[in-house]
Amino acid sequence: MPKVVYSESKGLVQETGSGFAFVTGTVADKVGMHLYQEEVELSALAADKVIGKLSKSLPANSVILQSSITTSTAGTGACILKIHSASLALNANGAGTEIVGADASGTTSTPDADLDLTTVGKTVATNTAFSVGSNVYLHLEAEGGAVGGSPKVVVSILYVGKGEPA
Fold first, then answer.
1. Which of these, 128, 104, 124, lies nearest to 115 by C-alpha position?
2. What is the pLDDT of residues 136-147, one digit of tens each?
3. What's the DSSP call for residue 114?
4. Which of 28, 59, 73, 121 has the largest CB neighbor count within 10 A?
5. pLDDT tens-digit series, residues 85-101
6. Are 80 and 96 in contact (CB under 8 A)?
């Protein structure tokens, strides 16, 4: 699916990639509101381990307006979404700041729970703004026990800032 961009200078255009972006100025500036969405296949690993990583990082100093995680292929277990200043390897010990899940500090996830991986379509989301700073890498961690099967999760991040995910 092509990326759709709306800019004041060119209107509605298509680009390579995926998602939707509202940008000010020229399309090349990429300053504005962006939607980054990616389906991530999770690894069957133990609790508190990195079980999936997004392929791109967010621009430094952007602000996340909304974020959600949705089960797209069922497995077993539960997961959370975290952000960190370093790209962590799969099976690494969990680290960073939880932004979607039951223990997300300063945020209110709806529902206030970790993502149940047993039900396709199950979603946990937050509308709490989060300042990215230098924490640009997003990953999923097993929470409350091991993850089994081959679950997939769609991660959706609506953010404002300069640039697309890199």
1. 124
2. 999 999 998 999
3. P
4. 59
5. 999 999 999 899 999 99
6. no
